[in-house]
Write a structure and sequence with these properties.
It is a single chain. The protein has 277 residues and is mainly α. It is built from eleven helices and no strands. α2 runs antiparallel to α4 and α3 packs antiparallel against α11.
Length: 277
């Protein structure tokens, strides 16, 4: 290929193909997860809301907010995996430890993906708790009350959740795959990679639940029982622990862990399968 395309261009073309595959793989996997497991995510959001589970909708209308979730899913996942694969491969090529390379790449991927995820997450969560009737109505309400920047409410809080989540999940995923590959003497199959993804995701999800609760409260624009607005991550975590008790920081831990465990299986399985084509 290098001889046919000219010196250096074969490698460049191969890298470009790999990046395109990462983009498509991430998009496919992300969409599969968000659509298949959406009701679990809705239940988690309603449990975390200060309104309370039943007032936020209970078990009714668990597909509210699916539209914005589906729209943002593919580009969000793709924007994660594009820098993730690129940075990880370059770091490994320069002799960086595999786990450190995975952490660095994951952080870059999350910061990139949140640019798309945050606006759709804002619309989705407001719809999930019944604040507005539809996607367009929700978008109009956000714009009229907060302007364009309102769509990115909670951006830094979401990054503050996603970064530690990825610092736990991706190195564990890479480590589990590496150890299993060593045991069986070959690369992990898509199924084995999916199982590793489920385990690592479940661990990361449970540990970072307090940050997820804070993110939900901020995006919903809620206040404490004393009328204090939730603003920053630390202020929100402290306010919840003070007024509702430390246990409130783990509201929705079961559906969150289930969502990301099953989601990790689907996400990483689809991602690995797409890459192996």
């Amino acid at each position: 290929n290098a001889e046919y395309m000219g010196e250096g261009k074969g490698a460049e073309g191969f890298c470009m193909c790999e990046e395109i595959m990462s983009l498509l793989s991430g998009a496919t996997a992300g969409l599969c997860v968000d659509v298949c497991l959406f009701p679990i995510d809705t239940i988690k959001t309603r449990m975390q809301s200060s309104m309370g589970f039943w007032k936020a909708g209970g078990f009714w209308g668990v597909y509210k907010g699916l539209g914005p979730a589906a729209i943002g899913s593919a580009p969000g996942a793709a924007l994660f995996f594009l820098p993730y694969e690129s940075i990880k491969d370059r770091a490994k090529a320069n002799g960086v430890d595999t786990r450190l390379a995975a952490v660095t790449a994951a952080i870059a991927g999350e910061i990139s993906a949140c640019i798309v995820r945050v606006p759709t997450e804002n619309i989705k969560q407001k719809m999930q708790v019944g604040m507005h009737s539809g996607m367009s109505a929700t978008a109009r309400a956000i714009y009229s009350s907060e302007g364009v920047l309102g769509f990115w409410r909670g951006y830094f809080t979401m990054v503050a959740r996603e970064v530690p989540f990825s610092i736990i999940q991706f190195p564990v995923w890479e480590s589990l795959k590496h150890r299993w590959s060593t045991i069986v003497g070959r690369e992990c199959s898509p199924l084995e990679g999916a199982i590793c993804g489920a385990i690592s995701g479940g661990i990361a999800a449970s540990v970072t639940t307090p940050l997820d609760v804070a993110k939900t409260r901020i995006m919903l624009g809620e206040t404490t029982k004393h009328g204090q607005q939730y603003k920053s991550t630390l202020q929100t975590v402290k306010a919840i622990a003070t007024h509702e008790g430390p246990a409130a920081l783990f509201r929705g831990v079961v559906p969150r862990t289930l969502f990301i465990t099953f989601g990790g299986f689907i996400f990483f399985g689809a991602y690995e399968a797409s890459r192996s084509q």
